[in-house]
Amino acid sequence: MESPVVIGIAGGSGSGKTTVLRQIIREFGPDPIAILDHDAYYHDLSHLDREQRAQFNFDHPDALETDLMRDHLDRLISGEPIEKPVYDFTTHTRTDETETVEPRPVIIIEGILVLAESILEEQMDIKIYVDAADDIRLMRRIRRDMQERERSIEGILRQYERTVRPMHLEFVEPSKREADVVIPRGGHNHVAIQMVMSRIQDLLPGVGYEA
Fold first, then answer.
1. Structure-derived torsion over alpha carbons of residues 157, 161, 162, 168, reported in degrees to the nearest 10
2. Cβ atoms within 10 Å of 4's Cβ, excluding its own
3. d(CA 90, CA 183)
C-alpha cells in the first residue's frame, strides 16, 4: 500500500477553508479522501458552567487536543481506521458519539491552526493557506455563527475582539510562512485549486480526479 498524500488546509476563521475543501472533494470525488477537521478535537468543556465556557479562548492552540489528532493521523497513515470525536459547538462539549474515519489515499487535515502546530505540519505533503481580507472573514464568521451555532451578533463580535483577532495575529497569520501554496479568494480561485490537484496527482498518480 502506498503512503497516503497528506494535505493541510489552514487560514483564518472565515477565510474559505471549507470552500476549498469542498472544491477539492468535488473535483477529486469523495471516495479517496479522509478528512480530519481540527475543530473536532476541541477539549470537552462539560466540567465548566455555561458562562465559563462562553469565556473560554477557543482560538488558542491549547484549546485543542492536537496530540490526539496527531495520533489519529498517524493511524490513518498506517492504514488503520480511527474514531474521530464529534464536538457540539452550541454547548462547547464533546458528544458521546464518534465518527469512524477509514484510511484513504488522500488525507486532508483542516483548521485555522494546523500549520501552526509542528506535530501536524511535519506530516503534510502539501500545505495550503487560504487567505481573505479581515472584513470578509468577519462577515462570513458572523453569518456562520448566527445560522449554525445559535449565537448573537453581540457575542460573536465580543469573541472576535477578545480572542479571535488577537490569536489570528499571534498564531494563524504567521503560519502562512509554512505554506507551499497561498490561495486568495478561497474556493473561487480555480487556478490555484487546479495547481493543487496536479500536485496531488504527481504525488499519487494512481488516483485520478474529475477535471
1. 120
2. 23
3. 30
Cα separation of 9 and 15, whole Å? Answer: 11
What stretches of 46-152 show up as alpha helix (H) in DSSP?
A: 50-54, 66-77, 118-121, 134-148
- How many other β-carbons are positioned within 10 Å of the β-carbon of residue 43? 18
Block means of pLDDT (10 residues each) for the chain, 211 residues, are 88 90 85 95 91 87 97 97 94 93 96 97 95 90 88 90 94 96 82 84 66 46
Question: Amino acid identity of 14?
Answer: G
pTM: 0.89
Q: Give 120-129 pLDDT, tens digit per residue.
A: 999 999 999 9
CA angle in degrees (0–180, nearest 5) for 62-68-74: 130
Compute the distance between CA of residue 148 and CA of residue 168 in angstroms, rounded to an integer: 22
Taken in order of first residue, the domains within the chain and their CATH numbers are: 5-203 (3.40.50.300)
